[in-house]
Design a protein that fits this description.
Oligomer: heterodimer
Strand order of the largest sheet of chain B: 1-2
Largest sheet of chain B: 2 strands, antiparallel
Number of strands of chain A: 0
Helix content of chain A: 55-70%
Structural class of chain B: mainly alpha
Radius of gyration of chain B: 19 Å
Structural class of chain A: mainly alpha
Shape of chain B: globular
Mean pLDDT of chain A: 79
Low-confidence stretches of chain A: 67-74, 85-93
Mean pLDDT of chain B: 88
Largest interface: A-B, 30 and 34 residues
């Protein structure tokens, strides 16, 4: 195994807090939510495993080395799944070939899954959902969204289809390093306006925030 | 490509800005050396990004160089590295493919200029295609596919964007490590998708005027020559999706000497350019920045 400190990107002299912070940041970076149904999910999960192992090694080593007893719970992010499992849940209600198509999609065998879907004449909700999943894996998000919406419209009570539509509507999520958030700048005018607003509100309620106005 | 993939200058460190300029100049020098002075027109920000993305993780040493365009300024260019050579070859292949495409798009008198230019670039293209046969084949196939889609007024954004995205994806084939190649392919596919959609959004007013194919016009309903607010939001969401895929893939890449510039381009540059294209400020900004480098 690699040196656990270099895996977390900290020096062996780093304090426990620094180690924890580095671990948390990396765990946020490779969190399963960022790789929801992503073709690279397996790589991210490997990375996550490596980070968890490194963190456990360091904390255990430090516990034994010193009388440190602050943190002993092991790593927090272990048992989350990266891959949305197509074989569970609703496939039980579908036909046998849908289950087979789901497992093909899970194995990233998209061409064969698409060919099988195209042979099914009846385009019901699950058909649309699976077609959407294939397009999603291919990176064709606009088409994927259309199929997911059709599926959800045909069967509005199905939570799986609804979740897919919701996920498409907000554009997914990804890790962004600290300080690179949305570039909505807060300038002095906004600050003053907010203060004046707050002052007016206070005055309405009988109090006062800015005594001079 | 079109110059959409660039770092946000205000967020770069001075050291990074100089590094970026070095790679840009280095790419220009390399094109001159490999293909002749006329080919420096093929340099742009997108290929500078590609060169930096394809760089290995070992540090790059710099050598100060002058060039005929800026005889008084010495720029610290990096020693040529394989990623930069690849980016130079890809840029020539794409420039030629694009000229051919432009010539096909236009009617007789207008097409002559592009035919002549394509004819002039052909020897360089042959050399580049000989060095990167897989990329040249993909570029040719996918551009052919795009012209078929254009002819039938294809209403699928994804099908149209897939052509350009696949070309850019082919630039990852040179990576030796299997995992790295997978990550680069995913990153470049979605980068290509975003660039194609940005270009479509940017060209929409012109395309409506001239009647040229634009996927947005076929996919969405237009109001007074513009997308409706709902359609614009839908388009931006799907682009945001691709952007998230780029970020997810980028997080899995090993850091290289240009990590600062690359993450600036992904986390600041692309969102800023997207914002500028949709607000209409892009064309002016583009002109201003070109004259400053």
């Amino acid at each position: 195994m690699n040196d656990p400190y270099s895996v977390l990107g900290v020096s062996p002299q780093a304090s426990d807090d620094e180690v924890k912070k580095a671990y948390r940041d990396l765990a946020r970076k490779y969190h399963p939510d960022n790789y929801h149904d992503n073709p690279l999910a397996d790589l991210a999960s490997e990375k996550m495993k490596e980070i968890n192992e490194a963190y456990d090694t360091i904390t255990k080593g430090r516990e034994q080395g010193s009388a440190y007893t602050g943190y002993s719970g092991g790593s927090a992010y272990q048992s989350q799944s990266y891959q949305q499992s197509y074989s569970s849940g609703y496939s039980a209600g579908g036909s046998a070939s849908y289950a087979q198509i789901r497992s093909l999609i899970n194995a990233n065998n998209l061409a064969q899954a698409e060919a099988m879907l195209n042979r099914i004449p009846n385009h019901d909700a699950e058909w649309n959902y699976l077609m959407g999943s294939i397009y999603w894996r291919k990176g064709w998000m606009d088409e994927a969204g259309r199929y997911f919406r059709t599926a959800a419209m045909m069967e509005p009570t199905n939570a799986e289809y609804r979740n897919a539509v919701q996920y498409m509507n907000h554009g997914g999520q990804a890790y962004r390093p600290a300080g690179t958030g949305n570039m909505t700048q807060t300038d002095m005018c906004t600050v003053c306006n907010s203060l004046i607003c707050a002052d007016c509100c206070c005055e309405m309620m009988g109090g006062d925030l800015i005594p001079c106005c | 490509m079109y110059g959409y993939v660039r770092p946000e200058r205000g967020e770069l460190k001075v050291r990074e800005y100089e590094q970026f300029r070095g790679v840009y100049c280095g790419l220009c020098h390399m094109l001159r050396k490999r293909y002749g002075i006329a080919y420096r027109f093929a340099v742009n920000y997108d290929f500078t990004f590609l060169a930096m993305l394809l760089a290995g993780s070992e540090p790059v040493s710099a050598c100060p160089r002058r060039c005929p365009y800026h005889p008084l300024r010495r720029t610290a260019c990096p020693q040529p590295f394989p990623g930069m050579e690849a980016a130079a070859d890809y840029s020539v292949i794409l420039a030629y493919a694009k000229l051919r495409d432009d010539a096909r798009d236009r009617r007789f008198p207008g097409s002559i200029l592009f035919r002549l230019l394509a004819w002039a670039v052909r020897p360089a293209y042959r050399k580049a295609a000989g060095l990167r046969p897989a990329f040249a084949r993909t570029a040719e196939d996918k551009l052919k596919r795009l012209s078929v889609l254009e002819a039938e007024n294809c209403a699928s954004l994804d099908a149209a964007a897939d052509t350009f995205a696949s070309i850019l994806q082919a630039a990852a084939e040179g990576a030796e490590d299997e995992d790295r190649r997978r990550v680069l392919k995913e990153l470049l596919y979605h980068l290509g998708r975003i660039v194609y959609l940005l270009d479509a959004a940017d060209d929409l007013p012109d395309d409506i005027r001239t009647g040229v194919y634009n996927p947005l016009r076929c996919r969405y309903t237009l109001q007074d020559g513009k997308l409706t607010p709902e359609d614009e939001a839908a388009l931006r969401t799907t682009m945001q999706h691709s952007h998230n895929c780029i970020s997810a893939a980028y997080a899995l890449l090993e850091e290289n000497p240009y990590a600062g510039i690359l993450s600036n381009t992904i986390y600041h540059g692309l969102p800023a350019v997207t914002q500028a294209v949709f607000s209409g400020a892009w064309r002016q900004r583009n002109k201003k920045e070109r004259s400053r480098l």
